[in-house]
Amino acid sequence: MTLVKGRVFSFWLLLVIIGCLIYSMWRAKKGKTINIRKIAGLDAIEEAIGRSTEMGRPVHYCPGIGGIGAAEAPQTFAGLAILSYVSRLTARFDVPEIVTIRQPEVFPMAEETVRQAYLEEGKSDAYEPGNIRFLSSQQFAYAAALFGIIAREKPAANFMMGAFWAEALMLAEVGSEVGALQITGTAQLSQVPFFVASSDYTLIGEELFAAAAYLSRDQMQLGSILGQDMAKVIVAAIIITGVISRTFGSTFLANLLSK
C-alpha cells in the first residue's frame, strides 16, 4: 500500500487516535472505573424536577430546533438523549412534562423517547401523548407558540438542549419571566453567551454531547469520551510543539507534517 504524499503523518496520527479509543473502551470493558469531571447543569436536573414537584407546576423540554439531516443533527440527538433522562424523572415523580418540537421528523422520535421512558419507570398509564406538541416548522412561528405555552403553563423547570439560533435569548427570557429554573445547552457557540446570561445552568459545546454518557454512567460511553480526550491532548501537544519549534526557527515538525 502506498500513501499519498502529504498524508503519511495524518495516517499514522489517525491510527494513534483509533488506538486511544480502542484502549479506553477496552479499559472500560475490563471493569476499570472511568470518571469525568462534574457538570453542574446535569447534576441540577433532578433538583429542577424536584422543584416542579414541590410547586405543582409542569416541566418544559425543548430538544432544540434543528433537524436530523444537517450539521446540527448531533445536537438534536444529544437533546433527545437528555430528554430520555428527564422523562424518566418526571415519570418517577409524577410531574407533567411538556415537550415542544419544531422539526416534523423529530416529533415521532420525541414521542417514542418519552413513551419509552415512562414505560421503563412502570408509568405507561401516566404518559400523555398530547403533551408532546409539534408547534411549527417555521423558526419564529415556533418561538411565538412557545412563548404562549410558557406564559400559560408557567413551568417550574425549563430545559432547552440542542441547536438554537436567533430565538435562543427570547425563549430563555420568557422562561426567566415565569420564574422557571432554566437548564440550557447548545453547541452553537454564537448562542452560548445568551444562554449563560439568561439561564441558571448552561452546557457549553461538548458538554452537551457528553451528557448521555454522564447521565447513564455507562462505562463504554465514558471510555469513548476518555479516548477522545486522550486524542485531543496528543493533537494539542503537537500544536504547542509546532509553535515553539517554529518560534526558535526549527522546521523539523513542519517537514514531518508535510510527509
> Would you identify the regions where 5 or more consecutive residues have pLDDT less than 50?
none
Strand order of the largest sheet: 3-2-1-4-5-6
By DSSP (H or I, 4+ residues per run), the number of helices equals: 11
CATH architecture name of the largest domain: 3-Layer(aba) Sandwich
Q: Beta-strand percentage?
A: 5-15%
Classification by helices and strands: alpha/beta
* Global shape: elongated
CATH topology of the largest domain: Rossmann fold
Task: Summarize this entry quickly.
With 259 residues, the protein is of the alpha/beta class. 58% of the residues lie in helices and 10% in strands.
Report what the structure shows.
With 259 residues, the protein is an alpha/beta fold. It has helices spanning 8-29, 40-43, 45-55, 73-92, 106-120, 139-153, 168-177, 192-198, 206-216, 219-247, 252-257; strands spanning 59-62, 97-101, 132-134, 157-161, 181-186, 201-204. A 6-stranded parallel sheet has the order 3-2-1-4-5-6, with helices on both faces. Helix 8 (192-198) links the parallel strand 5 (181-186) and strand 6 (201-204). The longest helix has 29 residues, at 219-247. The radius of gyration is 22 Å and the shape is elongated.
Provide key terms for this protein:
259 residues; alpha/beta; Rossmann fold; six-stranded parallel sheet; 6 strands; elongated
Task: Map the helices and strands.
Blueprint: H1 8-29, H2 40-43, H3 45-55, E1 59-62, H4 73-92, E2 97-101, H5 106-120, E3 132-134, H6 139-153, E4 157-161, H7 168-177, E5 181-186, H8 192-198, E6 201-204, H9 206-216, H10 219-247, H11 252-257
Parallel strand pairs: 1-2, 1-4, 2-3, 4-5, 5-6
Helix pairs in contact: 1-10, 4-5, 4-9, 6-7, 9-10
